[in-house]
Amino acid sequence: MGTDRAVETIQREMTTFARRARASAGRLHPELSLVSYTLLSHLEERDGRRATDLAAHYSLDKSTVSRQVAALERAGLIERRPDPEDHRVQVLHLTDAGRRILAQVTENRQAAFRERLADWPEEDLRRFAGYLERYNAWSGEAPAEGN
Amino acid sequence: MGTDRAVETIQREMTTFARRARASAGRLHPELSLVSYTLLSHLEERDGRRATDLAAHYSLDKSTVSRQVAALERAGLIERRPDPEDHRVQVLHLTDAGRRILAQVTENRQAAFRERLADWPEEDLRRFAGYLERYNAWSGEAPAEGN
DNA sequence: CTCTCCTGGTTGCACAGTACAACTCAGCGG
DNA sequence: CCGCTGAGTTGTACTGTGCAACCAGGAGAG
Predict the structure, then answer these.
(1) Looking at the C1' of nucleotide D25, which residue has the nearest alpha carbon?
(2) How far apart are CA B133 and CA B138, in angstroms?
(3) Number of other residues whose CB lies within 10 A of the CB of residue B98
(4) pLDDT tens digits for A31-86?
(5) Nearest to B113 among A7, A19, A120 (CB)
(6) What are phi and psi of B27, to 5 degrees?
(7) Do the beta carbons of residue B40 and residue A19 sit within 8 Å?
(8) Which residues of B touch A131 (CB under 8 A)?
(9) Mind telling me how many Å the CA of A84 is from chain B's nearest CA?
């Protein structure tokens, strides 16, 4: 019936999208990898998070986050400040440079999407956005996907 | 206005999805990587493609495809047959094992999506599927994303 | 107070996926 | 025959990732 066909299509198209995103991420956005971008965005929204928080939130290994954070710090986009309350902890903050790069990359991505979605009626855009939010908001019994 | 908000949301949610897909691909589907899965699917639809075709189709380097193909062959999922017409060419075919694994993995993925989308009204599913197809079908001036 | 356990983070190692460049081999056009 | 082109392979390097071992700071039990 129609439902199965629709689910099949969704599965197929999401797979296609994921594959392309992966393939093109490095080439299209050399400024900032997907994960770096996400981490930076997260910090922009909620400054002063710990690396562990990020790892938990994105289901990444703490070692991965540690290295990403180290790279971002080397690039001068974030700062690690010791937490006076707990000397094990490093609190992460965006630097001005980080904020600037983030804004610029966001704008680039945004522009790409705008172009791609240019001839969509607003009604469709709003519905599509809603569906995506709803899709991502799902949290089944597998908390493995994080967020 | 509403359009910009919607595009912003779409950008954000697509990014989230891509990040999660990347993170969970290996863990959730250890049987077959995303790319392997895609290549196998492609071969199921159009048997007898050449490695170069796949590379072009997915904007992957031919060396990457070469290695992926080699791995799939080692795993017994595809066969490489010399093309009698042109001895430079290797024509790729799914084996029975490949077809079986592919079917099983597809079913697993499908089930995950079905569960995730279980309480969506059919109308929404069909619209969402349509939007995704439309989104992926877009081919701007950057043919880099392939397909 | 000290000993043990817990927690945040780093580092060593391994591995997948990828690109680029150099190469081999087969076919093609002069 | 000779050089050019195209298919595919291989060497090398880099990124992102996880796991396991480790280190250092805190917290509670005795």
Answers:
(1) A88
(2) 9
(3) 23
(4) 788 889 999 999 999 999 999 999 999 989 999 999 999 999 999 999 999 999 99
(5) A7
(6) -80, -40
(7) no
(8) 124, 127-128, 131
(9) 33
